[in-house]
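Journal club side-thread
Mid-discussion, someone asked how the predicted structure for our own chain would compare to the paper's figures. Pasting it here so we can look after the session.
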Amino acid sequence: MVFLNRGAGVKLAPAEVEALREAARDASLDVIDLSRELDVAGICRDHLRRDTKLFIAAGGDGTVHHVMQAVVHTDASLGVIPIGTYNHFARDLNIPLDWRAALQVALTGEHRQIDTARINERFFVNNVAMGLYPELVAKREERGRDYPRWKARLYASYVTLRKYPHVTVMVESEHHHEVIRTHVFMVSNNSYDLSRIGIEAPRTNLEEGRLSVYWLPHTPRLRLMKFVARYLAGRVREVPGFRSFRTQRMRVQSTHAHVKVGVDGEVFTMTTPLAITIVPQSLVVKVPRVA
């Protein structure tokens, strides 16, 4: 079955949406339109009981996030048709950005077993973030999906930098205990190649069985702008104070009972403490066949 997010970043033209539906029907796939009220995990679990073996997320990283919740730790496969804004997960797996080619990969590609990670009871495939990022996403979504995306991002950046939110957390792992006050805190499922340019920094390995933790100490706005510039240039490790380490599990405590967390590009309010763990080899995905 295919879960189609028509509000994803690319916003396919009506004719392309209909072509996708027809291609799915020709492949004997059911198509379900996503909405905020839809219980995606419940639908997936119901179909798993009926022995459905392929679940395709047609959208961005947020769509993948919701569809994969019920597919983890099963013998079913996750396919991806990347029609979102950034499509980080699809790029990391070398899935084509053309929907027709991506559909073929979901149908005929090979199986690859990869790691996921978990924050409290929610799985994720990319990363979780605290500080500026959840606020940025929340402000962007305030404008709604019908508002031009570039204008929404510009508005969100302006409002977020004016507010300039930070978090103070106690981080505990096997070999690391530290109180951190920061605007930028991220935990990723496996490691990013930070030598690559900005938002396209890939993960070349999704089976190393480690979380990677990144943060920048509390810093003035101007210095943060320099950090962003170096990040976009692939020189983030040159930023004074930039820190990172790898671990299999960690605990994040806060003085607040609830905190906003960005998870795979979606914003959730979560109860602290946050338990974050790697979940090795827990998800089967369809990827292009190796020639």
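Post-session note: The radius of gyration is 19 Å.
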